[in-house]
Amino acid sequence: MSQPTCGEHLRVPAQAGLVRGKRIKQWVFYQRDADRIAQARESLSVEW
User: Fold this and answer.
1) Mean pLDDT of 31-42
2) How far apart, in whole angstroms, are the C-alpha atoms of residue 14 and residue 11?
3) 23-31: which pairs have CB atoms within 8 A and are 24 or more residues apart?
4) Are strands 19-24 and 27-32 parallel, antiparallel or unpaired?
């Protein structure tokens, strides 16, 4: 998969705060935000 394609697919989780992007020259390196992912999982696992 090409880098531009990966960047497009990671844009949505980045906007949701699940991953953080760090730009170094022309590249963007993404790292997951474990705390934010845990919060999202917790809010999605609410029992009705």
Assistant:
1) 93
2) 5
3) 27/3
4) antiparallel
pLDDT value, residue 2: 85
Nearby residues of 23 by Cβ (< 8 Å), 6 or more positions away: 29
**Side chain identity, residue 15:** Q
* Gap between the Cα atoms of 38 and 1, Å rounded: 28
Residue 32 near residue 39, CB atoms below 8 Å:
no
Average pLDDT of span 22-33: 92
Read out DSSP for 1-46? --HHHHHHHHHHHHHHTSEEEEEETTEEEEEE-HHHHHHHHHHHT-
